[in-house]
Design goal:
This protein is α+β, with helices and mostly antiparallel strands and about 100 residues long. It is about 35% helix and about 25% strand. The chain contains three helices and four strands. The protein has a four-stranded antiparallel beta sheet with strand order 1-4-3-2, covered by helices on one side. Helix 1 packs antiparallel against helix 3. It is globular.
Amino acid sequence: MSDPITGWIWNRNLRAFLELLSLYAGYAFDVLDWETIEAGVQDSDDEVADGWYSYPLVGTSATVEVALAQSVGGEELSVRVTGVEAHELRLRTDTLLSAFSS
């Protein structure tokens, strides 16, 4: 199993990040996914070990787990993506993190 891909993004970019990651994994991300994740990250906290919210994206080409946590007092979300095995998907995931933290 490969190492997790970690980083951060701005809160405002979360939906776009998840929609694109889902597309690359072959997962049909919809409004119910978004509402569930949006509610789940509300009480997350990146300064607490068990304060992260995790959500699986089970796609046709990959199954990844996205863990998210709010930065206390900030506008950032810490992100950890596990299960990213394929080189191309690893590269795309890393690129998404870079783009959505700009």
